[in-house]
Specification:
Elements (H helix, E strand, L loop, with lengths): L7 H28 L8 H8 L2 H33 L13 H11 L5 H5 L1 H16 L5 H19 L1 H27 L3 H6 L1 H55 L10 H142 L7 H11 L1
Length: 425
């Protein structure tokens, strides 16, 4: 019997398609709960950390995809453990009288009655591959080496099975840091120049609130990545234990069945299992050490990057504030200069008006002097008129006396008298 080859499309769907499908279902369910029972009034923190930024939503979806992959892997491991606890390898009578190839062929015929779960399990796959190797080569002399190779192949299969989760664990913090950078950029871009110039406290408060939202994405990403790391660690430990049990059961099932491997089975199998266990332990120790170093380096880089980003953000904000203040100060200086020029013009006009008022006052004084002179002239004229009347009266009296003296009455020539008086005057 030849075991059917695994289809690469089926493996891709199992390793990638099902986690994407169930992760999407879990994400939709979670956000439906946020829009329903877990509303923003009763659970504001959930809405702040999982709905505060689109990057936070993408991080949450990736977390649920990884959790779906881990859950599916956990279900598969439970099935593997169930197979290990219930499977019994059949015994064959007169096993020492048969050749290795015949015995392997009979055992392969019995594998046709196995259930699909047993065939696709680690134990069933390992036994089937080893039996096919013995049947094809005709001897079990290299069974120990094949056992070691099969164990390493299953370890590689285990490592490849968790590749999607490892990629998400690596990408989740990067995605959170990307959200922080985008949030800082958006917060700085939303600062309006007029707002900084008029209300600096309000502008800085808006900047800090934007930064709070931006750093929430990194907090969510780091928290979810830590949860995924612990879940993956537990899953890897469980699968390593299952692979160790598979190695032990395969050794117990095939150790004394084949004549070519009977004499050295007890020594070689124990050595192989011990080497495999040591190899697994060494690999896990090295992997954890590498992960710890990478985590420390990444944390240090994240801290430095966040510090640099905050420094750049604050420096940019302060430079922008200084530029705006300088611009405002220049405007104020221009306004002061314009006001000074207006005041100078007004002062010049006031001086001109003062000169005009002086001229008016001087003209008014001249008018008063003219008026006084005129009044004096009028008074003089009035006095002159009275003098003329007195002269006329005196002339009339003189003429009257002359008339009486001479006895001749002459008419009074007032005009001539006036003329003579005028001449006399």
């Amino acid at each position: 019997m030849s075991r059917p080859k695994s289809n690469s499309v089926i493996n891709i769907v199992w390793n990638l398609g099902w986690p994407l499908l169930w992760g999407s279902v879990l994400s939709i369910t979670f956000y439906e709960f946020l829009n329903g029972p877990l509303d923003s009034e009763n659970h504001p923190l959930l809405h702040r950390y999982f709905l505060g930024h689109p990057i936070a939503v993408a991080t949450t979806v990736m977390f649920f995809i990884a959790m779906a992959a881990l859950i599916l892997r956990g279900v598969n491991l439970l099935g593997q453990q169930l197979v290990l606890s219930t499977f019994k390898f059949p015994e064959i009578d007169a096993q020492w009288k048969q050749e290795d190839r015949e015995q392997a062929s009979e055992l392969l015929l019995q594998t046709e009655s196995w259930s699909p779960r047993v065939i696709t399990s680690y134990l069933g796959t390992r036994l089937t591959d080893l039996l096919e190797m013995i049947r094809s080569t005709g001897t079990a002399a290299t069974l120990g080496d094949e056992m070691k190779y099969a164990s390493e192949r299953d370890a590689d299969r285990q490592y490849e099975g968790a590749s999607l989760v490892r990629i998400i664990i690596w990408a989740t913090p990067m995605l959170g840091f990307l959200g922080t950078v985008m949030g800082i950029t958006q917060a700085l871009g939303d600062l309006a120049g007029q707002q900084i110039g008029d209300d600096l406290n309000g502008a800085m408060q808006g900047l800090f609130s934007g930064l709070y939202v931006a750093f929430d994405t990194t907090a969510v990403a780091l928290t979810l990545s830590i949860v995924l790391m612990f879940c993956q660690f537990m899953s890897d430990q469980l699968e390593s234990q299952i692979l160790s049990d598979v190695d032990q059961q395969v050794e117990d099932a095939l150790r004394s069945r084949f004549s070519g491997n009977k004499d050295r089975a007890s020594d070689s199998w124990s050595v192989v299992v011990e080497e495999m266990v040591k190899g697994q332990a060494s690999q896990w120790s090295d992997a954890l050490t590498v992960i710890q170093k990478q985590w420390q380096q990444w944390t240090a880089r994240q801290g430095e990057s966040m510090g640099d980003a905050m420094s750049l953000a604050m420096i940019s904000a302060m430079e922008r504030q200084v530029e705006l203040q300088q611009h405002q100060w220049q405007k104020w200086q221009e306004l002061l200069q314009d006001n000074a020029q207006l005041l100078a013009v007004n002062q010049e006009k006031m001086n001109q008006q003062s000169e005009l008022l002086g001229q008016v006052v001087e003209a008014t004084g001249e008018v008063a002097s003219l008026e006084q002179t005129l009044n004096s002239n009028l008074n003089h004229l009035q006095e002159t008129r009275q003098f003329e009347d007195a002269v006329i009266s005196l002339s009339a009296a003189i003429q009257l006396l002359s008339t009486r003296i001479t006895g001749e009455a002459k008419p009074l020539d007032l005009q001539g008298g006036t003329t003579n008086r005028g001449k006399a005057a």
